[in-house]
Write a sequence for this structure.
C-alpha cells in the first residue's frame, strides 16, 4: 500500500479571444498555440500512458471560456488553418536549414511534431473536448470547472454576481460533459470568507488554495498542507504544497530554467529576415512567436547555444527522478505528522506544460511512469477520491487568499488596473436590478437582451484583463476588451430601460460574444427585496457605520455599537449596521433585531492601513447603494469614528441623508500630539468627520473639551452622551463558588487589567508598580487580559524585572472568562494615559470589582475618589501602587467601595442612552425644537 498520495491538478484556461469580425486577430493565437503546444501534447501523452496501462490519476480544470472556444466551429476552423501553416513553415525550414546540421535536425523534429499534432486534431475533427471526455470515462482524469469567465471572485461586489459566475461555470460544464463537477478551481485560487457557502449551494465539494490560505486558518490545522481542511459548510480546501510546486513552475529556482531546456524567447518569428518569415507572421509585419525555436537556455546572457533534444531528454529524466525523491521525502514527513496517508497537492496552469516549458509534458510522462514502475511509496489520486478515504478532516475557517504576488489581491488591484472596478461594480448592481425587474418575463426578445447583458458583464469581469494590465503585456488589448464589454452592457441596458430593442445591434453583439447559450439570468436576481414596503413605512430607520462589530472586537467601539444598536431597536427604530466582514460570520444577518451587513475588504488588516481603510469605505458605499437600489430608505446615517468618514460623507452627499458622528477617541489624544504623516492624515479625517456631521456626539465632558479645541467646533454642535453598560451581559450563570483557574492559583489574589495592549492604556505603569505591590503583598497575581502591539515588549519587561511568573498575559479572553475575572479580582486597574470614557471600567464596577483608575478623561467623570473607587495620577507608578495596596490591605473597605461602584453605574443604562441618542437624531430631523434639547437632558448623570 502506498504511504501517501499525489494530487496533480492542471488548470486549463484562456480568456475568450474569439474575433469573428476580423481574420488576423493576434490574440486568437493564444488559443492556437495552447492547442498546438500544450493541450494536444498532453492529451497524446495521457492516451499513450493509458494504452501502456500505466496507472495514473490527475485532475484537469477546463474553464468555461476555453470550452466555449474549443467547441466553436469558427475557431476550430481557424485552429486547423494555424496547424496547416505550421506544417508548411516546418517544411520550408527543412529546406532552409539543410546546410545547418544543428538546426536541420531540429527542423525535422518540428516537422514531425506539427504533423502529429495536426493528425491528432483531424482525428477528432477539431473536437478536443471529446478527447477529454474519453480520459474522464477511462477513470484517468477527473474533470472540474471554474467560474464562468474566470472572474477574480474576491473583487466581485455582490453575492448575486459571485453566484452567477459559479452557477454559469457549472452549467457550462454540464452542457459539455453531462454531469456536475465535484470540485471547482477558484480563479487565481482566490478565496474569501463566505465563498464556500455559495459553492456548497451548488454541490461543490472541494477547491484549492495556496499554502498560506491553510497556514493562517483558525484554528490552525494540525496536519498543515498534508490534509485538506473542512470549512463550516462542509466544503473542503486542499492546500498547494509549496516545496514540490516551486520545483516545477519556477523558472528561476525550478526545473524549467535549466540551461539545457529550450529557450522560449528565441523564436524564428523574430530571428529570421522579414522576406523569409513574412508570410507566417501578422500581415501588418508584427512579429510574433511561430513555435519553432532552435536554441537552449544556455545561461542568463544573450548568447544562446543550439538546442540539443537528447540533453534535454536526459535532464527531463533526472528532474523526474529528483521530483519523485522530493515527493517521497514529503510523504514520509507527512506520514509522521498525520498518522495517515498524507496528500501532496500540486496545482499548475496546464499551459506551463509544453507552451512555456517545452519539455513539461515529457517530464510529466516520465514522472508518472517512474511512479508506476519504480516504487510504491506514493501514487496519484484526485481530491474527490481522497475525500472518500477519511471522515475526520481538520475543521477550520480561512481568511482571504490567492496564489498571486504577495498572496492576496496585489496583482488584480493596483494602480494599473484599479480603475476597472467602479465600472464593473456599477454594471453588476444594475444587472441585478434588471434581472429582478424582468423576473418572469416571457418575451423572447427581452430575454435575449438580458442574456447578452449577462455575457457582456461576465466577459468584462475576466481576471485576465487586470492580470495583463499588471504584467504590462498587450495592455491596450486588455483595456479595450474591458471597455468594449462594459459599453456593450450599457447599450443593452439602454434598450431595456427605453423599451426600444435594436435587433440589428443585438444580433451584432450576439455574433461577437456568442458563448454560454444556457446562461441563467435568474442567478442575478435579488433574493430578498424590501421594495413595496417603503410607501407604508412608519418605523424610523438609521444606518450605522462602524469598522468593528461583534464577533469582531478589537476595542470598546464594537461593544458600544452593538449595545447602542440593539437598544435602539427596543426603542422602536430599525437599525442597519454596515461593518467589516469577519471569518465565520455571515455577510447578512439579524442580530438582536439589528440588520447587520458585513462587507468584504480586499486588503488584509495591517498591510497598507490607509489603503485598507479606503477599500473599507468603498465597499461600505457599495453596500449602501445596493440597499438603496433594492428599495431601502434611511432617515439618518450615524458614523462611528474616522475610519468610516469617507463612506459617511459620500452617503450624506450622494443620497442627502443627514449625518451624525460619534468621536470615541482622537489621534491627538492617543499619541499626545500629532507626530507622523499617518497621524496627520487620521487627524484630518477626524476633523472632516466633525465638519461634515450635523451633530457630533462625544462620551464625556473631557472629550467635549478635547474635540471642541482640536477641531474648532462650536459648543452647540456637540452632545455629551456617556457610554453604557449592560448588567445582563455581566451576570454569572449562577452565583455559586467560582475559581480563577487557570489564571491564578487558589491562594493568589488577582490584580486585573482588561483592555487593548497599546501604549495609552498604561500597562507599562502597572508593571513598574508591580514591584512595590508584590513587596507588600506577595500573594498577588497580575492578570493582563487583552491583545495588542505592545504585548511582546511588556512581556519582556516583566521578565527583565524578575517577576514574570507573577504576571500572566492572558491574551484575548472569552466573555465568560472576562466576567469571571471581573467578579473575582481583588482589584481591577485602569492606569490609562488617555481614556475618552472607558467602558471596561463600567463593566468592572457593574461586576462588583473594586477599581483603581487614572484621573484622566471619562474615567475621571465616572469614579469619585474614595466614594465608588480610587484614582491615581496618570503615568505615576508609585501612585498606582499606593492605591492598589490600600485596597489589598483592607478587603472589607474594598468591597464597600465595589458595592458603591456597582450602585453608581446603574445610571449608565443603555435604554436611557439609546433614548438620548434618538433625541439627537430627532433634533437633526427637525422633529423637536432647539429649546426642547439641552445637554443637561442628555446627560443628567454628569451634571451633578
Amino acid at each position: 500500500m502506498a504511504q501517501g498520495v499525489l494530487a496533480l491538478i492542471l488548470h486549463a484556461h484562456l480568456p475568450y479571444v474569439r474575433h469573428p469580425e476580423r481574420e488576423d486577430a493576434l490574440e486568437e493565437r493564444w488559443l492556437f498555440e495552447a492547442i498546438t503546444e500544450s493541450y494536444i501534447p498532453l492529451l497524446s501523452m495521457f492516451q499513450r500512458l493509458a494504452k501502456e496501462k500505466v496507472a495514473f490519476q490527475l485532475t484537469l480544470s477546463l474553464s468555461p471560456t476555453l470550452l466555449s472556444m474549443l467547441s466553436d466551429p469558427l475557431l476550430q476552423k481557424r485552429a486547423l488553418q494555424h496547424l496547416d501553416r505550421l506544417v508548411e513553415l516546418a517544411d520550408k525550414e527543412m529546406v532552409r536549414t539543410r546546410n545547418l546540421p544543428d538546426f536541420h535536425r531540429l527542423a525535422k523534429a518540428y516537422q514531425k511534431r506539427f504533423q502529429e499534432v495536426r493528425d491528432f486534431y483531424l482525428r477528432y475533427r477539431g473536437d478536443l473536448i471529446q478527447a477529454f471526455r474519453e480520459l474522464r470515462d477511462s477513470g484517468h482524469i477527473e474533470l472540474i470547472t471554474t467560474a464562468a469567465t474566470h472572474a477574480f471572485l474576491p473583487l466581485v461586489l455582490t453575492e448575486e454576481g459571485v453566484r452567477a459566475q459559479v452557477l454559469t461555470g457549472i452549467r457550462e460544464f454540464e452542457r459539455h460533459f453531462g454531469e456536475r463537477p465535484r470540485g471547482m478551481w477558484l480563479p487565481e485560487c482566490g478565496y474569501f470568507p463566505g465563498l464556500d457557502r455559495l459553492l456548497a449551494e451548488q454541490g461543490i465539494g472541494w477547491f484549492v488554495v495556496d499554502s498560506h490560505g491553510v497556514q493562517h486558518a483558525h484554528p490552525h490545522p494540525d496536519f498543515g498542507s498534508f490534509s485538506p481542511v473542512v470549512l463550516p459548510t462542509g466544503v473542503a480546501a486542499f492546500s498547494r504544497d509549496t516545496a514540490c510546486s516551486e520545483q516545477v513552475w519556477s523558472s528561476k529556482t525550478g526545473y524549467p530554467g535549466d540551461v539545457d531546456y529550450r529557450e522560449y524567447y528565441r523564436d524564428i518569428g523574430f530571428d529570421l529576415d522579414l522576406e523569409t518569415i513574412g508570410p507566417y507572421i501578422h500581415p501588418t509585419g508584427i512579429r510574433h512567436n511561430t513555435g519553432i525555436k532552435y536554441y537552449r537556455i544556455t545561461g542568463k546572457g544573450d548568447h544562446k547555444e543550439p538546442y540539443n533534444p537528447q540533453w534535454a531528454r536526459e535532464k527531463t529524466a533526472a528532474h523526474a527522478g529528483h521530483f519523485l525523491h522530493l515527493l517521497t521525502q514529503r510523504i514520509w514527513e507527512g506520514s509522521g505528522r498525520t498518522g495517515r496517508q498524507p496528500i501532496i497537492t500540486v496545482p499548475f496552469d496546464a499551459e506551463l506544460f509544453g507552451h512555456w516549458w517545452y519539455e513539461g509534458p515529457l517530464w510529466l510522462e516520465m514522472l508518472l511512469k517512474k511512479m508506476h514502475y519504480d516504487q510504491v511509496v506514493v501514487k496519484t489520486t484526485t481530491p474527490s477520491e481522497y475525500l472518500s478515504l477519511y471522515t475526520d478532516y481538520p475543521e477550520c475557517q480561512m481568511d482571504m487568499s490567492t496564489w498571486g504576488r504577495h498572496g492576496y489581491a496585489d496583482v488584480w488591484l493596483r494602480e494599473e488596473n484599479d480603475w476597472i472596478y467602479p465600472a464593473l461594480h456599477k454594471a453588476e448592481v444594475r444587472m441585478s436590478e434588471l434581472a429582478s425587474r424582468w423576473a418572469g418575463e416571457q418575451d423572447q426578445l427581452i430575454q435575449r437582451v438580458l442574456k447578452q447583458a449577462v455575457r457582456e458583464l461576465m466577459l468584462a469581469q475576466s481576471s485576465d484583463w487586470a492580470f495583463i494590465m499588471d504584467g504590462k503585456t498587450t495592455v491596450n488589448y486588455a483595456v479595450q476588451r474591458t471597455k468594449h464589454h462594459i459599453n456593450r452592457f450599457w447599450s443593452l441596458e439602454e434598450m431595456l430601460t427605453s423599451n426600444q430593442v435594436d435587433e440589428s445591434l443585438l444580433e451584432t453583439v450576439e455574433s461577437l460574444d456568442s458563448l454560454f447559450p444556457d446562461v441563467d439570468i435568474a442567478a442575478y436576481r435579488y433574493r430578498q427585496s424590501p421594495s413595496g414596503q417603503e410607501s407604508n413605512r412608519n418605523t424610523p430607520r438609521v444606518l450605522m457605520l462602524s469598522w468593528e462589530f461583534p464577533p469582531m472586537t478589537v476595542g470598546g467601539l464594537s461593544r458600544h455599537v452593538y449595545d447602542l444598536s440593539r437598544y435602539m431597536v427596543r426603542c422602536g427604530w430599525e437599525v442597519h449596521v454596515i461593518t467589516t466582514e469577519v471569518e465565520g460570520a455571515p455577510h447578512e444577518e439579524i442580530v438582536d433585531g439589528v440588520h447587520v451587513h458585513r462587507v468584504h475588504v480586499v486588503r488584509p488588516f495591517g498591510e497598507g492601513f490607509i489603503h485598507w481603510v479606503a477599500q473599507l469605505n468603498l465597499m461600505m458605499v457599495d453596500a449602501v447603494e445596493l440597499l438603496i437600489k433594492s428599495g431601502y430608505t434611511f432617515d439618518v446615517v450615524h458614523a462611528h469614528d474616522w475610519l468610516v468618514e469617507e463612506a459617511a460623507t459620500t452617503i450624506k452627499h450622494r443620497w442627502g441623508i443627514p449625518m451624525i458622528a460619534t468621536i470615541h477617541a482622537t489621534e491627538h489624544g492617543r499619541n499626545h500630539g500629532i507626530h507622523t504623516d499617518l497621524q496627520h492624515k487620521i487627524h484630518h479625517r477626524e476633523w472632516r468627520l466633525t465638519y461634515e456631521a450635523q451633530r457630533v456626539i462625544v462620551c464625556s465632558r473631557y472629550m467635549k473639551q478635547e474635540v471642541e479645541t482640536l477641531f474648532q467646533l462650536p459648543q452647540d454642535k456637540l452632545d455629551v452622551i456617556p457610554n453604557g453598560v449592560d448588567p445582563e451581559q455581566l451576570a454569572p450563570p449562577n452565583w455559586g463558588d467560582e475559581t480563577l483557574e487557570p489564571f491564578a492559583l487558589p491562594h493568589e489574589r488577582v490584580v486585573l487589567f482588561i483592555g487593548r495592549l497599546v501604549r495609552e492604556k498604561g500597562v507599562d505603569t502597572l508593571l513598574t508598580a508591580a514591584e512595590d505591590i508584590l513587596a507588600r503583598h506577595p500573594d498577588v497575581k497580575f492578570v493582563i487580559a487583552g491583545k495588542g502591539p505592545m504585548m511582546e515588549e511588556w512581556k519582556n519587561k516583566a521578565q527583565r524585572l524578575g517577576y514574570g511568573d507573577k504576571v500572566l498575559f492572558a491574551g484575548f479572553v472569552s466573555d465568560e472568562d472576562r466576567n469571571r475575572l471581573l467578579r473575582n479580582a481583588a482589584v481591577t486597574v485602569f492606569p490609562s494615559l488617555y481614556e475618552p470614557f472607558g467602558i471596561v471600567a463600567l463593566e468592572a464596577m457593574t461586576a462588583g470589582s473594586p477599581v483603581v483608575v487614572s484621573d484622566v478623561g471619562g474615567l475621571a467623570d465616572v469614579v469619585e475618589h474614595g466614594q465608588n473607587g480610587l484614582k491615581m495620577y496618570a503615568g505615576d507608578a508609585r501612585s498606582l501602587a499606593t492605591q492598589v495596596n490600600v485596597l489589598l490591605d483592607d478587603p472589607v473597605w474594598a468591597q464597600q467601595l465595589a458595592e458603591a461602584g456597582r450602585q453608581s453605574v446603574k445610571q449608565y443604562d443603555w435604554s436611557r442612552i439609546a433614548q438620548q441618542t434618538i433625541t439627537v437624531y430627532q433634533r437633526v430631523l427637525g422633529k423637536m425644537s432647539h429649546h426642547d434639547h439641552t445637554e443637561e437632558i442628555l446627560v443628567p448623570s454628569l451634571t451633578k
Observations:
- The domain at 539-720 is CATH 3.40.50.2000 (Rossmann fold).
